[in-house]
UniProtKB/TrEMBL annotation:
GO molecular function: acyltransferase activity, transferring groups other than amino-acyl groups
InterPro entries per record: AB_hydrolase_fold, Esterase-like, Mycobacterial_A85_antigen
Pfam families for the chain: Esterase (PF00756)
Name assigned to this protein: Esterase
Keywords (A to Z) from UniProt: Signal
Species of the source: Corynebacterium aquilae DSM 44791
Transmembrane spans: none
Taxonomic superkingdom: Bacteria
Signal peptide feature range: 1-34
Length: 337
């Protein structure tokens, strides 16, 4: 058998044992059994690459005309050709080179046996995955954020053309900042998303004091200017991107929200004191924000599922647990077992 045929037959084992010594690559995933996962799709650089996360995850550079650059996206194709997509959004300190869903959680392994396409965009620290009115930074090289356009127009078109993902059959989940964004995107683009999940999201971003807290968080995250997001604190767009005021588009959707008290668990005691204290404060704020959102949602006729976790700081421990806990729900709603 030729080398080309051998590599094709083992799919995600892009560096086969037979050539590992020569290529200095390691086996990153179990052998593929579904043709939908066995081959690399085209992207802006020519073709995607196998990602080190394994489990058939491809790293694809998707060109964004809105941001005038390629956005890296990790994609795990569905196991048996299913056309549903599941978007996973990062938090405030999203890394420019990798997603927390593979660095700190095990999303690809969790969904390896599923018939859904995992879609994990990389980057967007402090962006709230929205379209900003101006470059995000105060000074230096401009950072242009047009994430809503990318996630709801440019990326879906790429996914449909190259992975067969139906642009109108998707679920979306996010943690912290990503939870806020997931709720907004699902409400603002109801045809694209049938399900939304928020893990420790901030769902009352225009409530008294929140803009000041967000302003400080964005400066600390990357020297970002919150005024560049929607220009004026009184801009209607600021309220259109607050989940508390942005609910109508969620009617008829499956909604799941979760947050913890921030109390320390035995596992959290292994963290340094500073992160433990900050993790308590951030998670407690998310809990209060989510509870306020829930009250208004129910008064508005929505019926979200809520999971108020008794303990756990604002960290990947509770978010990984939520990823596992909601897997059956996602696959049921999306018909992707």
């Amino acid at each position: 058998m030729s080398l080309r045929k051998r590599l094709r037959s083992i799919g995600m084992k892009a560096a086969a044992v037979a050539v590992a010594a020569a290529t200095a690559l390691s086996v990153a995933a179990p052998e593929a059994h579904a043709g939908n996962r066995d081959w690399l799709r085209p992207d802006a650089t020519g073709h995607c690459d196998w990602d080190g996360a394994g489990y058939w995850v491809q790293r694809c550079d998707v060109w964004s005309p809105a941001m005038n650059r390629s956005i890296p996206v990790l994609i795990q194709p569905s196991g048996r050709g299913g056309d549903a997509g599941f978007y996973l959004l990062d938090g405030m300190r999203a890394d420019d080179n990798q997603t927390g869903w593979t660095m700190f959680a095990d999303a690809p392994a969790t969904y390896a046996d599923s018939n859904i396409n995992l879609i994990m965009p990389i980057g967007g620290a402090g962006s709230f995955y929205t379209d900003w009115d101006a470059p995000a930074t105060f000074s230096g090289p401009p950072v242009l954020y047009r994430w809503e356009t990318f996630l709801t127009s440019e990326l879906p078109a790429y996914l449909q053309a190259n992975f067969g993902v139906n642009p109108n059959r998707n679920s979306i989940a996010g943690l912290s900042m990503g939870g806020t964004a997931a709720m907004n995107l699902a409400a603002r683009h109801p045809q694209q998303f049938q399900q939304v999940l928020s893990f420790s999201g901030y769902l009352t971003t225009t409530m008294p004091g929140m803009q000041t807290l967000l302003r400080m968080a964005l400066i600390d995250t990357g020297g970002f200017n919150i005024n560049s997001m929607y220009t004026s604190i009184l801009s209607p767009r600021r309220f259109e991107n607050d989940p508390f005021w942005n609910m109508d588009g969620l009617r008829g959707k499956d909604i799941y929200v979760s947050a913890s008290t921030g109390l320390w668990t035995p596992a959290d005691m292994g963290l340094p004191l500073g992160p433990r204290v900050m993790g308590w404060a951030l998670e407690n704020m998310a809990r209060n924000s989510t509870a306020a959102w829930e009250m208004k949602a129910r008064a508005s006729g929505l019926n979200p599922t809520v999971d108020y976790i008794p303990a756990g700081v604002h960290n990947w421990g509770i978010w990984t647990d939520q990823l596992h806990r909601t897997k059956g729900r996602v696959l049921d709603v999306m018909g992707a077992w």
